[in-house]
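Batch manifest, entry 17 of 40.
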Amino acid sequence: MSAREERAALTPGTSLYDYALFRRGIEPDGRIPRKGYPLPDGPPEPGPRDLTWHQARAVVTDALTPLLADPDPVRAAEAVHRRVADLAMSPRTLRAHTARLALADEDAARRTARQLIRTGTHVTAVGVGMALLIRLGEPEDAPCLKALGMLHGLADTASAALDPLDRQAAALLVLRSRDRSRELTPLTDAVASGDAEATRSALLAVPHEQLMWQPRRLAEAADLRGLLRARPQDPELLALTGRLLHRMADQHDSRPAILDYLPARAVYEALVRHADELSPTPEHRSLLLSIALDLHSGAPVLLNWRPGRRRALLDALDRLLPDVVPEPVPGDRHADWFRRNRHLPFARAEDGDRPRWEVVVVHGSADSSAVETRILADGVPLVPALFGKGRGNPPEYLLDSGRLRAGSEPREVQLAEAYCTEGCCGALYVTIRRDGDGVVWDGWRGAVGPTPPPYRFDAAAYDAELARAERDFSWCWPARSTARLIAAGLRDRPDLASRWELAPSWVGTDWRNPDTAVVQLVFTPSAPPPGTGGSLYFMWWLPNDDGPPRDRAAAALQRLETQDPKAFAVFGGGNHELAEALGYREPPRTPRA
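Output type: C-alpha cells
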C-alpha cells in the first residue's frame, strides 16, 4: 500500500469494518494473509496479567453489564469504547468473558453490538461487539463479521459468531487462519471463486494430514453435501466423504466434530446409498466397516435419526460388505482388522436394560492402533453422550482389571480421561454398586452438562455381559495379546518388578507401530542419592517376532525374573536430579527396541 493510500485508509475515525473492506479492495490477488490483514494501529498492547480468570470475569461483568442495557446503541457503544480502554485488559480475555455475560436486555445488547462492529475504531471494543454476536447474531450481521474476520486476531471470534449464521464462511476463516503450510490455499481459493468443479478437485487434493486436522471445517467450507448432490456416484468423492465422516466421528481429543456437522445425517445417507460405486479394495472395505462401527456404537448414534433410519443404513452396509474374508497375509493390517471386526456392528441383540461393552480398534490408518471400550446403555454410547473430551478407557484398564465388576462395596471407576490429561480438562467417573438384584451406576463426576441420572441394570444380565466382554479377545492382534498377557503376569506376580524397585506403569502397543508391545516401568529407589528423589521411567519395546503371544509373554516375564530391566530397557525420563545422580541421560526422541 502506498503512503497516499495508507493515509486515506487511516483517516482518524475510520471504522475497522471500513478499513477491512479497504484492505481487501487494494489487494491485487484478493488473498487474505494467514494471520489476517494487519490492524491499522498494530497489535494491541497486552493487558495486565495479575488478574485470575474469575477476577477478570467479575471486572468485565461489572464494567459492561450496565452499559449493554442502555437502549440507545450509539451512546452505549461510545461508553463501551471508553470503558474497555480503561480496563487495559487483553482483547482475548475481554472477548471470552463478554461472550458469557448475563444480559438483562438482549435486544439492547444486540443493537449495541451492531453499532460496535460497524463503527468501532479500536480492536478491543469491536471484539466486544463480535463476542456478543456469538449468541445474539442474526443473518444481517454476517457480511460485517466476514469482513472483520479478515483482520489480524479477529478470525476466531468472527468464526464463532458466524457458525450459527453461515457455516461455510466460518469454516473458511478457520482454515485460512490456521493453514500454516498453505496447503489449503487452493481449496479456499476455489471455494471463494464459486467454481464447484475446482472446489471438488482441490478438496480431493488435500493432503491426508490436513484431512485429519479439520474434517468438519473442510466439509463445511467445500459444501460437501452440495458436491455429493451434484455428483452422487463419484467414487473419489464418496471415498473422501467416508474418510471425513470417520474422522469427524473420532473422539480423539475433544467433542466429536460429527455432532456439530449439521448435514451429517444427509451425508451418511448419500454415502451409504452409493457405496457400491466404491471399488472393492481392502482400503474401501475397511473404510465402510469403520463407518458401520461409528453408526453402531460411536458418537453418530447421538445424531437425531428418524426411527429405524440408522438401523437401515447398517443393514445396507452389512449387505454390501463380504461375509467371508480370507485369512490375511502377515503384515496386512487392513485385512486382519477387517476380519476381526466384520460382524461387530451388525449384531441385533435385544439389549433391554442390559449394558453392553464393545472394544473397538479405531481404524484411522494402518499406522495407528487406538483402542477404546465403548459403553452402551439402552443403545446410547455413554462416553460421547456424557463427556465428549476423549475416548473411553482401553479394555486393559476397564475389563482386564475387573474395575467394572459390581461388588458389595461401591467402587468409583474412571470411564474416560481427557486426551490432554485429567489435570487439564478432566475425566468421567461413575460409582458402581450392587443393590439387591440390580447393579446401579450413579455418583457421576466429571460429566459435561447436567448431572446424568442413575442407571440401574439387572444384576444377572450385567454380570453375564461383563463376563462375555472379559473373555472376548477377538478384537486383539498378536502384539496386543502379548502386552495383555505380560500385564496379567505382572498383576499376578508383582514381585517380578518390585525386586528391582520397579512397578508397571503402562503396558500396551506402540502407537505408531502396533506390532510392537511396550512395557513402561517406573523406578522409585528406596534409598535415593542424597538431595534427590522422585521416580524415573523406563520403556521396554518388544517387536513382534511372529511367535505365539503366550510364548512371547512368558519369555518376557522370565527375563524380568532374572535381569534388571534398567540394564536393557530405554530410559524414558523422570526426575532430573535423580537421573543425573544415577548417570541416566535424556531419552532419545524416537523409540528403539
